[in-house]
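It would be a great kindness if you could assist me with a short task in structural biology. Thank you for your consideration; the sequence and its tokens are set out here.
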Amino acid sequence: MITPGTGKTHMVAWLLREILEEDPVAQVLITAQAHPAVDVLRAKVEQEAFKDIPEARRPLAIRLRRANSEQSDHLVQDEPGSEQQVTKSLLENTIGQLEAAAGRLERSGVQADWLEICRAMLKDLNTKDASSAKEFRELVKRSASITYSTTGDGDLAALADEVTYDWAIVEEAGKAHGFELALPLCLGHRWLLIGDPKQLPPYRIEDYQKAVSELDATVASLEGLEGVGNLLDTELLHSWRVRTEEQRREFGEYCKKWLKLFEQVHSLCAFHEHDEGLLTGQHRMHPDIGELVSGVYYKGRLKHYTRDESTKVPHADILHRLAEPGELKDKAVVWLDLDPAAVDPRAAENAVPKYRNPAEAHALERFLRSLRAAPDRRLNLAVLSPYAQQVGYLREKLNTPHLREALGEAGLTLAPDPRRSRLEGPDARRDGFFTVDSFQGNQAQIIAVSLVRNNTEVAGKGLGFLVEAPRMNVLISRAELLLVLVGSWDFFRDQVSHVSRKPEEETKLQHLAFAVDQLEAWFDEGRAVRIRGDLKGFDAPFRLA
């Protein structure tokens, strides 16, 4: 189990080097659900773990990436590390060595044959019908010491009948569905699953759980299909029909539990391993941000290596050192505060379309314009929200050339879109503003979170899916130097006022109650700060009923 800021990518990169030093002929599959996660780990391996190894002595590594509708096959083939590029490089190096050897000694017949064959394959490499080059490419793909791929890549699936790996390492395994993990796990003799069951589960897991709850209706619909022939598993349908109601209920609960495959595997391992395979030393976040995350979501188990162990003073490189506004001096946690909707209706959320809060966007823009980095430093910034509608609104209103220019002059840049692959060029329209789901596994020096919810619902009923602990955990653990929470403090405090703080009386809202208590204590101590959101010049847009 990998908690926020513990350097999982660094750990995996150096573990990979150790595996290959211990067993130079080992084959390792490095995989993740999404391309960016694979690319980040690959860069860490190449630029850190193997940086002191000469290129010629590094283990053979390839990057599988089947072209999609938005990428030409030519671009994918030319990607550094691709099957095509690695094969070309091997042939060029071999030709160079054979030619150099011929300059020193008389070339043997075998060397002459090899040189001719390599030259022919290199010439035919881009020709699909050239069988010799194709066979050599396949040999390279099957022989690689390190294979990088997404969990469901078509090229990886094509290797399933020909290759098995000594290790299958899955990054961000907690975000992957079981069917996405099936292929890499089947290919690996040993597994290393990296993830955090306390962060976001697989995408749209609620829809899958709902489907499992409606198996009776699904079976009835399948039985009513016509013209499907052998495509329908009638034996499976019959086995469902002969089950008792109790057996069906138990089967449904079993399926719901195992839909979160990583969480289940982790719980089984934790039963046998006291520390649950938990990495607890965080090296990324300012210790105040780390303590907030640790206390609310990990029972205080994280150790903070971003401060002096004896004095508890944060390390100099973990301080944002913003020159303005002055209220932020020595603060790593800020609440940009708006009135509750009951006091100022302008600050209320828009429920249609669900959900967005224009007042938060306005206050955040004015706050961002007030920031000034230290003269000798540039900081990157990402704005997150749990609601896609709010992210779209923030991008529309804030991601403008004028604001980007103002931020640049203040020493700030918008964080690049982590979903952009190496094959894509820069696109400022996609930078800086993200949903929590799209930003998990990434970080920025400054994170601003637009919480959106602000309404007149009774206590405990107005927070929507902010009650989901994994979502809030990800939101507040992305910041390295400064965390800015944008919302109505009084609204959030009132929403959790009735919640029991007793650990044995755990509820869905308890994590928010702990967070509110911690922040309120820090406000009183001066360790964190509440800043009044500036709504000057704000006119609430027309609200749909």
